[in-house]
């Protein structure tokens, strides 16, 4: 019962916020509504028992993609009025895409009614939570590819630094040795100020 | 877990991370140290390849394998990477800001390539390929102040990402229809269902398309001339050698191991790719005026010949591919070493073919070396470059693919024109323009000399040992 209620709650909110994404006039609001939609979709995934995908939606889509969107929308200062001005010119093209999407949806629904596609192997039924199952695989059978994936991220970092970093002459770096060399007696001065005189610095 | 079989990868990975810290803290001052330490690490990794653990068989539950085939691939890859570092050491001398990170990226790329040649699972294949490619994108745009280099990097990145996507789509189709990512599982599924399953067939086509991009086989070659022209010369030399060897070897393992039972299906694709590469590589090179672009078309052309060996299949075909790639890298690295000598008095690098005019009078040694490489690339008999071509065609004829062999030989004749044109420009044209600056790194001169010696008729002495090595390496995947 609770699950059914939760499903309708998440589903309604997902659709409502998805509609709001399109109808919001302010693009920043659109992105915020999109984040709302992602959260509710994550809730739906939880109900399905796919905890890992739920976490992925929150971490990757909300945490990274949507925030990136927000930054772009706010920083690039895109003139959305100018973007909208080509509406009538692009209308036929938009309609064609909409028709294609509609046809695909009809096909998808009829294919869904015809039964699931079986690709040879069915997943084994298990009571193990899927995050745990994934973790176990990543650190045992797929340890090697997992480590190489870590190296790929390292290369991406090195690449980003090498291609964008410039050493500037006017940068003020930290001088570690000066900080380490500093003695308490030259850094701290103890004073006993008299009443009404204050401290001389 | 016994880590001895992945010792070369461990040496390179840990070394690369340590050198990354050296580069970060020492900056430009560390570039000497990083270069020579990387060369030492690569040679150290080569030294471990002869050991018994390098033939230990399946590792990590079948994710990758240590066998003669992978050891042979790693040997070539590490040596090519070392040459690329030595070449760059000279190139980046002119107060280049991030010279110290260059060897680190090459080392990480070498790790990716050694994963590629030893992968026996689609997952390992993909991560290895990505590690190599990502390093390559950065290396291509290494001279970021140079517009052409930045353009090369961007172009390579966009097209490479597209190819990765296609490859991944193929992998996911194969996984979906076979239920496994292991090569042997995929092979078992092909034996069971044959190529009647449309899903398997699509997976195969997409997988091969992704791989064809990496080896720059026609029709996925469009990026090659632009990237080779724009990237710094040492990087171009690296691209034309090590990653190409890794991708060709990966293709051989995928086709003969995972897709072995579907040979009829991929044979058509590979036959087309081989012939199209040979002819396009030969014909499109005619109008080129830039020597790096010309060598790019030459690399497309050469990959076509290697693919003929793959089409032949079987131990003989596989060993001819290995032999071909081993000789090809020597010729191509030698040619690029000569190209790096094309440098004006003002220190600017010159890339036009016209500037080679009359080189035989101004710089007879350099002209002679370049002529040897060109004759060898053209496959003209007294040179060693003739032998691998003969082996490849021999493998094709043994398999009864006589039409393919004849077409390939026709392609050789067409291709010979543009190699010989360079020799003609150097030996028969009057000197024009300013001569190249004299002098150069002694180590590079030694390498040019050594490589020229290998591809000269003296190289025929290598047929015995190299043939035995490639035969054993190819035997280990069957």
Q: Give Rg of chain B in angstroms.
A: 21 Å
Main β sheet profile of chain A: none
Shape of chain B: globular
> Which runs of chain A of at least 5 residues are low in confidence (pLDDT < 50)?
none
Class based on secondary structure composition and strand pairing of chain B: mainly alpha
Q: Helicity range of the residues of chain B?
A: over 70%
Helix content of chain A: over 70%
Uncertain ranges of chain B: none
- The CATH homology group name of the domain at 1-77 in chain A: NADH-ubiquinone/plastoquinone oxidoreductase chain 6, subunit NuoJ
Q: What do the pLDDT scores of chain A average to?
A: 85
Task: Write a structural description.
The complex is a heterodimer of chains A (201) and B (478). Chain A has 201 residues and is mainly alpha-helical. Chain A has a domain at 1-77: Four Helix Bundle (Hemerythrin (Met), subunit A). Helices cover 71% and strands 0% of the residues of chain A. Chain A has 9 helices and no strands. Chain A has helices spanning 2-23, 27-48, 51-76, 80-84, 87-113, 130-138, 143-164, 176-181, 184-187. The mean pLDDT of chain A is 85. Chain B contains 19 helices and 2 strands. Chain B has helices at residues 7-26, 31-48, 68-91, 101-118, 122-140, 147-178, 183-193, 198-214, 223-230, 233-258, 263-284, 291-312, 314-340, 359-362, 364-378, 386-398, 402-428, 442-455, 463-475; strands at 57-59, 64-66. Chain B has a two-stranded antiparallel ribbon. The longest helix of chain B is centred in the middle third of the chain and has 32 residues, at 147-178. Chain B is globular and about 65 Å long. Chain A: The chain crosses the membrane at residues 6-24, 31-50, 56-78, 90-112, 142-163. Chain A: It is a multi-pass membrane protein. Chain A: It is found in: Cell membrane.
